[in-house]
Design a protein that fits this description.
- With about 240 residues, the chain is of the alpha/beta class.
- The longest helix has 19 residues.
- It has nine helices and six strands, in the order ββαααβααβααβααβ.
- The protein has a six-stranded mixed sheet, with helices on both faces.
Amino acid sequence: MRVFIDETGDHDLDHIDAQYPIFALGALLISDDQYLALDAEVKFLKREFFGDDGTFVLHSSELKRPYDKRSDPRNSPMLDPERRAEFYRAFDNRIMRVIDFKIALCVVRKEAMRDKYQYPMDPYHFSFENLLNRIMGNGGKVNEIYAEKRGRELDAELLSEYERLSRVGIHSYPSESVVARTRLRLVAKSENVNGLQAMDLLLATIMRFRLGKGAKMKNNDLDPALAEARVVASTTFPRLR
């Protein structure tokens, strides 16, 4: 099983955006053969809509803000409402309606986490341990986990945390199972891994919908109902009473 992990929001508990007060980590779980199909379809969509030459990277925030100077100029087709709607429909129809995959999520309500604990755990690391449980419960005998690099210091911290969990185990599985059934690989954005890019779009869609932005999403996002239908596990922390 291949697993692609992506995040939305930031893990900073000191400065919380009132418009996006959450951090979420999502995992796309997919078999090797289904990933070959997903990879081929994403490549086709990137060529069809963005003239991809093998270097274009789908990124949800850039698709939403193609006019931003930090956005790849090839995102400009998304300025056209009709073309934008066509892209999201094509992704829905060619990938979400056809390809078999599952999604696991961990969502952190940042203000509640900060207020609940004097020394709260890093939301990324907390979510990663939670997802490891979900991956092992819903994945295969061996799960190759891909996560995007976030910078030298953050990458080192994540690898250290994974090594710790491999020694002590996680909530539902002993250390021996973690070692035998998971492998973690950090990949650079420049490696252009389409599984990570698909998870980026899916996670952004799900969380915008859950934050009540559904009215703005029609023709401007993937179909949130199709994305939610793939969610097999979802944890929100701290839990609502």
